[in-house]
Predict the structure.
Amino acid sequence: MNQVLEFEKPIVHLKDKIVELKNISKDSDIDLTEEIDTLEKKLSILEDDIYSNLKPWNRVQVARHQARPTTLDYINYLFTDFIEFHGDRYFGDDEAIVSGIALYHDCPITVIGHQRGKKTKENIRRNFGMPHPEGYRKAIRHMKQAEKFHRPIVTFIDTKGAEPGKAAEERGQSEAIAYNLKEMAGLKVPIVCIVIGEGGSGGALALGVGNHVHMLENSTYSVISPEGAASILWKDATLSQKAAESMRITSYDLKEFDIIDEIIPEPKGGAHRDVEQQAKNIDKVLKQSIDSLSSLSSEQLLENRWQKFKKIGEISEAE
């Protein structure tokens, strides 16, 4: 299914018009080349105008696009010889988190990420990318393995949040997230985190304590969803667009606050328009991060990570 977002409808309408004129020209002797060229130029201008002026709520919609590339999509493009591991050795395997080892530019790494589905059955199987505690325990188990064998860690963040249900809480959801935060802070290997879709609350942060944290241009990172914030602030989830505007959840906002390190550009219209190009954009930033961090000692990596998170939320008052 080709999902069309609300703000993209004028673009789709113009594209349909161009296709219609091309079909008329093909099926008759009427030359519509000039009219088609005019509309194509108009389309290019319209796309530039719309995609270069996306509002926060538009970026939320792009981040949630059903065709947006997932962790496994990027693994296929960025890494070779990927071997996926399963299970937390306590309860079971959580398919909302993918974890394994691979080669990145011929160097061994550990790669971990949230994994949602593309279609309904897969989404149900992967719990829509919302991990249970066993998912986080699986992730930290493999992070510690990476530390043991001196492998850099790459995490891909893409979740609305951790599974909030009763069963997850009974199995220690809050403790699992807190444990990941503590343990990631002390790992003595390079950690690079990339928000590729939605970065929601503690469910995202449990994979997000890295030396470098990057975001795709149209991804979001926030303590709560716009719908959740609107429900709390105004008792009305339909005001989610207003909430998105005030929450400062886009990559540009977080770069301004110095919470993330780099904004990774996306193809016009979003990562789903050209997955291969998006992977190349990620590769460029990821390679620079791993190269720069690999030259640091264990003590320097820990200090780098400590200083990064220590300064978040700092304020200064003018005298």
